[in-house]
Please model this.
Amino acid sequence: MESVVIVPTYNEKDNIATVINKLTALNLDLHILVIDDNSPDGTGDIVKNLQKKNEHIFMIERSGKLGLGTAYVRGFHWALERDYKYILEMDADLSHNPNDVPRLIKACKKGADLTIGSRYSEGVNVVNWPIKRLLLSYGANKYTRIVTRMPVKDTTAGFKCFHRDVLEAIDLSKVKSSGYSFQIEMNFRAWKKGFKITEVPIIFIERSEGHSKMSKSIVYEAVFMVWKLKLLSMLGRLN
Ligand SMILES: Nc1nc2c(ncn2[C@@H]2O[C@H](COP(=O)(O)OP(=O)(O)OP(=O)(O)O)[C@@H](O)[C@H]2O)c(=O)[nH]1
Ligand SMILES: [Mg+2]
Model:
């Protein structure tokens, strides 16, 4: 297969089958890798059932809720051990539309090293978010842009396609962020290594099922992380 989509899950029993079925229906040259943190709601069992009928679905089960950042890093290692050219990330809560996956891959095929499914590249394309949440996300993106000067409008987005070269070039053992700042950190490291980042507009729809794992500590982590990244980069110690 040419591509793999990594889907981290924690308590997504109402969404995961729909996401997997929609991805499968695309009929692409694509594998699906779920990273489930032993979801108490039985998300893992649902995936196991789907695996019986579809050999393109893979799952890594971790012992408990270990955070989004480490889930992705685990998935990246798994993908790099195999031959995939394009390695994607996507949420399981249907905020990211599986039908947008081909556009992300296409942008990489056209020359981008990292493509971001962006909420803010053409105005604001977010549906059903309370204004407070939108301001937080939009503000976090503006703040990151001002501090780092990175030319990315939606740097906290979790809908992305990496060319494998990018993940091979980044020392994943150095990536320490766990929440949204994981996305910022990966973009920053890719950008500093000279990789080309492109944004394609997507419409982001707030989850209608399940619960958000957003927390204050995730926000604080991001606030400090952008300065840490900037400082490390200035000191030439980002690698
Ligand atoms: N494996 C794993 N997945 C996680 C963890 N935390 C969140 N996720 C998954 O990561 C994706 C994004 O998490 P969300 O809870 O939707 O976070 P969010 O998108 O910031 O918040 P809302 O969309 O408002 O709920 C979802 O698919 C979650 O199930 C974790 O600790 N481990
Ligand atoms: Mg979400």
